[in-house]
Design brief:
By secondary structure, this protein is mainly alpha-helical. Helix content is 72%, strand content 0%. It is built from 19 helices and no strands. It is globular, with a radius of gyration of 20 Å. The model has no long low-confidence stretch (mean pLDDT 87).
């Protein structure tokens, strides 16, 4: 836990030194330091850190002796008809021609995710410190120390793909989705975001989406079975006691507060419409987590926009109140982390 706390303390220190005036130059240096810190934490972790780091290590060793044609044979058949993700194995095998050490491979994965994340925050966040703290508290376990396949897929469709969503470059976005779904088939769920991102927040639309989300909670069973059938991941099944209650409550609370402050948010940043629609889609998939916790992987493609939305909410407060709310938010994020902070060790320990 200590190293995570040092990471958070350094984030706050860099912000105090560099972000007193939010110039492009200072923002760039802060984001650079924060990104490098997370590359180090993610890439230099011990094989015991993360639920499946060791499992991916075994997979890395098993892939080494395979010839390329063993991974390209029936490639698209596996993508579209089976529960396989052949793109990841091909990516891994191609990487092994340059990187034969698993630890260096983890560093590469960290760079592939953290650099686009840093640019995502640099480009679009109104409060980079808050954004990195949110990642450090809510998302690091999912993207920094666990499943490598979805980490790469998310970097492609969300952190890079979002730039194409904003630029309305459908073809490039579709190419990214296609590539990402060969790495982790769940990436396909991000496709509707392109078409929904600019949907205006009329009262009818908001009430319709909230009603739709409520209906999905009621009919989550048929919704779950439909998605499992379409995805090909037929190994997923009902699990007793499933449900990310705390995370679900937090996400819905942020969405409702954002809707309450939407006029101020959109006046400050009209592009925040994208963040609202991303969180609506996240909420649509939340009911599935109450059937099988693995369905959180679908939710996480959209919840990364909390990194952008929460700073926009903070920005709506009056200048005199904003500093108090800002420090309260930082304190709350640190306390949330302390409540369930895991053990961390570097690979040499």
């Amino acid at each position: 836990m200590t190293i995570y706390l040092v990471n958070i303390a350094l984030l706050v220190l860099w912000a105090m030194l560099l972000m007193r005036s939010d110039t492009t130059y200072r923002r760039g240096w802060f984001v650079t330091f924060a990104t490098v810190q997370w590359i180090v934490l993610s890439g230099f972790r011990h094989i015991s850190v993360g639920d499946d780091t060791a499992q991916y290590g075994s997979l890395f060793l098993a892939t080494k002796p395979l010839p390329l044609d063993a991974l390209t044979q029936d490639f698209f058949t596996l993508v579209f008809t089976e529960s396989e993700d052949p793109g990841y194995y091909l990516f891994q095998r191609l990487t092994q021609f340059v990187i034969s050490d698993y630890q260096l491979y983890l560093v590469l994965i960290a760079v592939i995710f953290m650099v686009p994340l840093g640019y995502f925050i640099y480009k679009y966040s109104s409060e980079p410190l808050i954004s990195f703290l949110i990642f450090s508290v809510l998302f690091y376990e999912f993207f920094a120390v666990t499943g490598l396949r979805q980490t790469v897929a998310t970097a492609l469709v969300v952190l890079i793909g979002y730039h194409f969503v904003r630029a309305r470059k459908l073809l490039l976005f579709l190419v990214l989705v296609l590539v990402a779904m060969t790495i982790h088939k769940s990436a396909l769920v991000f496709l509707p975001f392109y078409f929904l991102a600019n949907r205006q927040l009329t009262k009818a639309y908001i009430l319709g989406m909230l009603g739709f989300i409520a209906a999905l909670f009621v009919f989550r069973g048929p919704f779950f079975e439909m998605l499992v059938t379409l995805s090909g991941y037929d190994t997923y099944d009902y699990m007793n006691g499933a449900g990310a209650i705390n995370f679900s409550a937090m996400l819905l609370f942020v969405l409702l507060v954002a809707l309450w402050r939407r006029d101020e948010i959109l006046a400050n940043n009209p592009s925040a419409t994208h963040y609202f629609n991303a969180l609506f889609l996240a909420a649509c998939f939340l009911p599935l987590t109450f059937i099988n916790p693995s369905m959180m992987r679908l939710v996480q493609y959209f919840t990364l926009f909390l990194i952008l939305m929460i700073p926009e909410i903070l920005k709506t407060f009056e200048r005199r109140e904003r500093l108090l709310v800002y420090y309260a938010a930082v304190t709350l994020l640190v306390l949330l982390f302390l409540q369930d902070a895991p053990v961390y060790t570097f690979f040499w320990q």
